Queue: 2 jobs
Job 1
Amino acid sequence: MKNYLYVFVIFCSSIIYAQDCNSILIGEIVDFHDNSTLSGATINVTGKNLSTVSKENGKFTFKNLCDGVLELEISHPECTTKFITVTINGDTFSEIRLEHHLEELKEVKVIGDIPKNTNSGQENILSVKDIERNSGNSLGDALKKIAGVSTLNTGGNIVKPVIQGLNGSRILILNNNVRMQDMEWGEEHAPNVDVNANQNISVIKGAAAIEYGGDAIGGVIVLEPLPVVRTDSLFGKTQLNLSSNGRGGNLTSSLTKSYKSGLYIKAQGSYKKLGDLEAPDYILSNTGINETGLSLNIGKRDFEQGWEGYYSYFNSEIGILRASHIGNVDDLINAINSDVPGIINDFTYDITQPHQEVTHHLGKLSYYRRFEGFGKWTTQYDFQQNRRFEYDIRVGDDSDKASLDLKLTTHSILTNLKFDAKEGFDLKVGALGRFQSNFANPDTGVRRLIPDYDKYDFGLFAIGSYELNSDWTLDAGARYDFSRIDSKKFYRTSRWEERGYDVDFADIIIEDLGTQLLVNPIFDYHNFSGTAGFHYEINDKDHLRFNYAYSQRAPNPSELFSDGLHHSAARIELGDLRIKSETSSKLSASLERNTSTWGYSFAPFLNSIQNFILVEPTGVEFTIRGAFPLWSYRQTDAVLLGLDASLYNNWSSKIRSDHKFAWVRGTDTETDTPLINIPAANFTNSITYTNPKWNNFLVSLESQFVFEQTRYPDNIEVFSPEQQENVILDINTPPDAYHLLSLNTEASFTLKNKNDLTVGLSASNLLNTNYRDYLNRQRYFVDDMGRNISMRLIFNY
Amino acid sequence: MKTSTTMKRNKTLKTVLALSLMATVITSCSSDDDTPEVVNEEEIITTMTVTLTSAAGTATLQSQDLDGDGPNKPVITADNLTANTTYTGSIVLLNETETPAEDITEEVAEESDEHQFFFGLTGSLTEVTYADSDGNGNPVGIEFELTTGDAGSGAITITLRHEPKKPNDGTTADAGGETDIAQTFPVIVE
């Protein structure tokens, strides 16, 4: 090929003379990756009315050019537009390499629901519109739009995403390619991310994307910034949301400056303040929130190399329902039996005890470099620090002191090489190193719930995808993760013996303080994961995907070490040092159809988990304060079987209806009993009317029906000191089914630029229905949130 | 031209490598072998001692749970009481995980408007009256009087509530608040 070109150039120069404005430029356009020629590219000479299209062999020609410098704009439907300068000195030949793969520069719009993290796995993308509508909510609330995603709540503001029945450490959250390390192990620990910071959000159900971690038995949530367009521009977006429930709102704003050179800088900030939330019949006292998020991206994305620096700060102060802070099992029995909470105060913006305050810092540096005809190398360092204070109701001098004060610091280094030179075959190999240190401040005066520990992780992975032909794509991957946790923890001697650790772990005691023992557990985990699947494009409308994922997850510090009374939950939580890694084998399939008139997705899954780690009420323990429910971690074998289905139909160009159904059934196969905290089936239907002629007017009505969870573990029998007898503690019984309506309407207007202002008005729980949700930990005490009318203004500039 | 780009690339590459190296150094250095400081619970009440005094003599009821929220149950002891007698009662709360033991009764007395003891009686125990009050004239219950009936068995349940509704009708159900102590003493009245 090259030889042929030289011949061509020589041939041209032999017939044309220089300096006469009759020079000829001959160019050849080739793919950067595999050196194949690209036809159909448009080439414009900037500032001159000259234009041509590259031929079958990738070549183009301009005649009658003057000597000097020319700027060419080369565009191709499948490539990023590229500007280059060429010095014309007599007859000139220029080889132009175009980025034929879009993923890096992302100048072309990202198309709808096309998965990009996995070919064969179940993956959904949240639209920017959906994120805008949830700008005032949490990440979990926004993700609920996706069939199969539900939430585990502690009130209205602490919202953890649940994917196909699994939550917590089984869900990995990637914030701008940094795996969040924010104490995700706690049920009342919400992800420390601002939903407004990253507007490109996708959910991978299950462990199919093992590049990000082998332990994502539940799934992966990928948060990325919207791609920055590579031109000289300055643009921004500001959104204001006001909501009636909580009597507050949030303001979020971002400003992006980009340059043609690929350099960009983006700053974003959000502030949110809500006072006490309200149930239909009463105020949910002490449920306010203050939240601040800031982020800054600076980087340069070029064709061959690029770098990025990213920093984000997130701080939230969240009130915990006052009435949920209770003394002992009798208080809990009374709360469960009572229709109204024990404490209802007047509305206030003040947040008092109990509450939590969490700060998360995240910094990242990344660099990539492409190698011609070979692939791309990426490396990244990231740093995170998560500081969590939990304040309980305490007496005397300690009343303003935190009961829990944890500082979690994490450093990670990632590197990977992607080989994509061969058309239709991509291979990526990578490695990860991570160090994490947790410090539990003893100044709280409360025994540590989570001890001091150091954790070391090391991972290696390889993933590949292969296009068998235009219809079939295969993907597969394998990963190995080593992790070591080295902790120093104090145990009460009585607890140590009661757990039988004096027999099994006698050798790890390093100090005996009489009533307490200092021990040094060091545990190593070797985990393997693997995935394989296919994507079959039946035709341009119908797709079939099938994936098998094998994944292992090491126990988190909470599962190993929890030991103590959790006041805000009125329960004693006990981890177990004997807990091993859990292993999941998940089969998932999806059949999808997408046409302009209608479409559906039908996605069943079967997840069989060996040594599944769960926490559930197992009894009571007596203290001078009375009896407390004991929640113990244990391991068993479990099977989760489920189905996510969705359907849409465009009845006309203006009317569309959407239907979604999700169901999951979780069983402890060792005891043949239902698993705890499995979301109830839910069915959502909505109808939307849009009319682009009326300022893009949109109105939609949504009905959400949540079934009663009929499968739950048995309640426990406890001795009630108050009643002086054994009573059934109704701690597992799920609440009734409920139905909620919500309404959303929006329109856009033109101030300076076309449609630069969007105004929206929505109402959730439109009928102010009283309901309680099984996966809300405050369901024992109060009804869920009542009607919320919110207004949003979105201004693009 | 070409050389300068290559040099530039090399420079960037070096920077990245340097950063990665730095990160590795940070990572390997921050491991420390500090021994964490032991935490002795400050607010825990391990022991409630009720002293009942009458002309007939002194009786003691005690609940002691030295491992606090640990797995061991409180140890409850109760002396026998004399029938048809009025006792003067007083309550002492201690945190015996500290040495010397911390007297928690003082804290309760200081915040008496936020605390109240409640007494539940069954069997041969007939009446309790409060013998103290907080700054607002509402009962506290650190000091009280207990009257016994005829010989037989009975039980007294003593509950300390933090932030109860005050005043209240004397029952825990009406008072609300959070339970700091709830212990039942079976007693024999002879």
Note: Chain B has two domains: 1-29, 47-189.
Job 2
Amino acid sequence: MAEDLAFAAERSFLATELLTWLWFRCEVEGGEFDLDGGQVALVVEDGLSLASWDDDGPRASLRGGTPTLRPEAANALGGGLVLRRARFVAARGDREWHFALDGDTLDLLGVKVPEPPEGEEDDAVDALAEKLAAGEELRGIVDALYAQFLELRLSKDWDAIEVPRLADWVKAKLDRAWQTVGA
Amino acid sequence: MLVGKGALTTRCFRVSGKNPTPKPEKIAERLEQLAFAGMGEAEEGAVAGWIGPEHLFDGDFEPTRLVRGRYFTFALRVDTRKVPGGLLAAHLAVEVAATKEAEGLEHLSASRRRQLKADLKRRLLTELPPVQRAYGVFWNVHSRRLFLQSTSKAVVEQFTALFERTFDLEVAPHAPGVTAAEWAREHGALDALKDARPLLLGTAARNGDLAAVG
């Protein structure tokens, strides 16, 4: 049992990789994911915290002004940093969640759940129950994204296809950053 | 309302054990047994207990008011009282000087200083009100998932210990490594998981003849 837990704890880096992979998928493929509960669109919104795998290594924080497109973000990725925390927007149909996702624990932080549809505010619907259910629904969405990531991450396609694509993405971001810095 | 207040920051737990889906009446009864009972006047440290979902002084565990939709709602209250080190040191310096002057002494023995310090600490504890905090809990008993409105390590530990003592159930935080291990076991990918190493994206990019932007 203790051995199992130690093994699992050593693999928690996969959650951190999930965040960088979501960023990549959002930029390269538009951020739409087919999940069991329906399609979800995802955007990396703000509040990027990047860090190296080494706890004592460099860190970078970027806020405001579309930080995912800033040269500093490209430079951080090119320097080997991974996304440790970020604010996302997730949309299912016309419902939107704004939240931060922690790359160490996959905890959901500061979640703003979808507003109730117009005209329903005064109904007998229990607003608190709806809010808690929307919070749990987001938990389900993130868990499903993680499962989808694990399916790819633990397949042969990860090293053969996805890692080169991720490297190309970083290269393209760095090229754009060079152009921006040089302009 | 404590539960669900503001933007939600939560740690998710899975509930397991002999009877992981107790009835609302049973949950309410158990919560009441370990309800927050207050802190002694000069007690130091932390005291934890359950309260209702509304506010810090909510001690009403009537099941019908705790059930909201598919959730059973309540809150963890933790009161802490500690004499700040700086405050104690300042009071002690004043007290030592006053004692030396009153008794015509040049020095106070270590044991006398210890005694003065202990007396001061006891007095200050009676003067300091405890810091009162509460953290909402919502429990989807059917899905066996529970959400605590805190991610603080200390609060999570207090919650876990009190929950397990209250319900005789196990509660395990959502852990990405455990989820990965369970997924891999279920899908025959344990070897791949064992071989997995952190992605070195910077190295992969540099191997493609990249240089970081200065």
Note: Residues 127-153 of chain A form the longest helix (27 residues).
